[in-house]
Write a structure and sequence with these properties.
Number of domains: 3
Region (Disordered): 179-200
Strand order of the largest sheet: 1-2
Helix content: over 70%
Order of helices and strands: HHHHHEEHEEHHHHHHH
Signal peptide: 1-16
Organism: Alexandrium catenella (Red tide dinoflagellate)
Transmembrane segments: 42-64, 76-99, 119-141, 153-171, 242-265, 285-312
Keywords: Membrane, Signal, Transmembrane, Transmembrane helix
Number of helices: 13
Length: 377
């Protein structure tokens, strides 16, 4: 489809841009650092929107199918990709035209065009999100009121995460802040700078960043459960229980985002609120990972768990052994209790069968005696 072709071309170019940026930082060693920083800073808005554009392309393909060339002009993902490509081109132009002494661009019109392109990118993404939401929900009005019905819950959650990411990106554009742009007045020493107190927008962006991966996991789980759900996929009860782990993680991510919006940060307000919000997020991700299939998480656990154990300090390793020992003891006790209950149930069933056989034998013997008594002279 047109949406997947345009998004894949943008993603490939973004990966190439990342490789060029990393190679420049590694090889130039400060000789061209200002130009590289200018390119990376100018492309910050486009690079931050690339994962969202890819998710929008996948969701548009799942809802409306492959887009044809005749309808390419009404495809929002195509305009998103074009706007992001223009921004990347402007970033390369701005980075190449930087003055090495002042670090200021010599062509001010490039900055104005960049702002207009960023505005167009956000407008196109807004239309793309609205198009997906229009395909994911159905609204009916009657005399009793307005009814809003969502489709399959995994896809609906992914579409809501896309809308959330668009809102964060639009707020960042309106605020004129970019996480990839170095702060003004920060003294750079050997490529590093003194960290400053993050703003509310910085905390919101950092908190919402995992939503990209979570949306892709929801789409992957949705594609894996299409055969189970059937053609309509409108019954939440048709989902396996573990599939709701990713939905729980999305809800927990929203709670963390609300904590990040606090004026004094997530540390203010309720004590240990951040840790409390992280618990359902981690539990939901664990359940969702298991729900994606045994073939995925067993090899991943075989690689991640030993590496994590090797990197843990001795104190954490001892604590983990204690936790695993307590969990193993509880699991062993539960298994023994279950085995004893199973044995008692089996013995009770065997005793009931023996009693039933004995009663039938007594009834048959009594019947035979009655028959013999009738036949006797």
């Amino acid at each position: 489809g047109v949406q997947l072709l345009s998004a894949s071309a943008l993603i490939r170019l973004a990966l190439a841009f990342h490789a060029l940026d990393a190679g420049a930082h590694a090889l130039l060693l400060g000789r061209g650092g200002s130009a590289v920083a200018g390119m990376h800073g100018s492309a910050g808005s486009a690079m931050a929107a690339v994962p969202l554009i890819g998710s929008l392309a996948l969701m548009d393909y799942m809802v409306y199918g492959p887009g044809s060339a005749l309808l390419a002009l009404v495809q929002p993902v195509l305009y998103c990709s074009l706007a992001a490509l223009v921004q990347l081109g402007l970033a390369m132009t701005a980075g190449a035209s930087l003055n090495g002494s002042t670090g200021e661009p010599e062509q001010p019109h490039v900055k104005r065009v960049g702002h207009l392109t960023s505005l167009g990118l956000n407008v196109a993404m807004g239309f793309g999100v609205a198009r997906i939401l229009a395909g994911a929900i159905s609204i009916s009005a009657s005399t009793a009121g307005i009814s809003v019905q969502w489709g399959e819950p995994l896809f609906a959650t992914a579409s809501l995460l896309a809308a959330l990411l668009f809102a964060v990106d639009a707020a960042r554009t309106l605020a004129g802040a970019s996480t990839t742009t170095p702060a003004a007045g920060t003294a750079h020493v050997n490529g590093s700078s003194r960290p400053e107190t993050p703003s509310t927008m910085d905390r919101v962006e950092a908190t919402a960043m995992p939503a990209h991966s979570l949306a892709l996991a929801l789409l992957a789980s949705h594609a894996g459960h299409l055969e189970v759900l059937g053609p309509d996929g409108s019954l939440p009860s048709a989902l396996p229980p573990l599939a709701y782990g990713l939905i729980l993680a999305a809800v927990a991510l929203l709670c963390q985002l609300l904590l990040a919006l606090a004026p004094a940060g997530p540390e203010a307000g309720v004590p240990h609120a951040q840790q409390t919000a992280q618990l359902p997020l981690q539990a939901g991700l664990a359940l969702g990972l298991v729900g994606l299939g045994v073939r995925l998480w067993l090899p991943l656990a075989a690689v991640v768990v030993p590496g994590t154990l090797l990197l843990l300090p001795a104190e954490a390793r001892e604590g983990l052994r204690g936790v695993l020992g307590a969990f193993g003891g509880a699991a062993g006790g539960a298994a023994e209790y279950l085995a004893s209950c199973t044995q008692a149930y089996v013995k009770q069933r065997q005793y009931a069968k023996e009693v039933l056989h004995a009663q039938r034998a007594d009834a048959m013997a009594a019947e035979v005696e009655r028959e013999l008594a009738r036949k006797a002279p």
